[in-house]
Specification:
mainly alpha; two-stranded parallel sheet; 5 helices; 67% helix; 6% strand
């Protein structure tokens, strides 16, 4: 059975990326709920490269889109309030409309943040695939 509960029992909170097999497992298994971080253990990489790769993997693998969502909310709120102060708080700039704009901005920002993180993660996976295919690991 491949439920997250079973993975929690079998996996440590730190997932060690050691080669193509563990990369394939990281890509295919629903392990986000089971691990807290990803550690790159590859003797074919210099230590500083492995740590940089670790930071990127952890950032994009565990991304939730909150950073982009909050930025979109802030920009929408500031723009709406500035426009309302200039034009008055009526019509499309009424308070209830501003709340709607902010909610839409939060949703759109979060979705775009998730899509961006997934694209970056796919690019990182391709780089790792190429690294492992070229036999640059031991």
């Amino acid at each position: 059975m491949n439920s997250p509960a079973n993975y929690r029992r079998r996996l440590p909170p730190v997932y060690e990326l050691t080669g193509p097999e563990t990369l394939a497992r990281l890509r295919s298994a629903p392990m986000k709920q089971c691990i807290r971080s990803i550690a790159v253990v590859d003797s074919g990489l210099p230590d500083d490269q492995a740590r940089a790769l670790e930071r990127q993997l952890n950032r994009w693998y565990f991304a939730c889109g909150c950073e982009q969502g909050s930025l979109a909310v802030l920009l929408t709120l500031l723009t709406s309030v500035a426009a309302s102060l200039r034009a008055g708080f009526d019509g499309a700039l009424a308070w209830w409309c501003i709340v709607g704009y902010v909610m839409v901005a939060a949703f759109v920002g979060k979705v775009l943040g998730l899509l961006y993180a997934k694209a970056r993660l796919r690019g990182l996976y391709r780089r790792l695939d190429a690294h492992y295919r070229c036999g640059q690991h031991e």
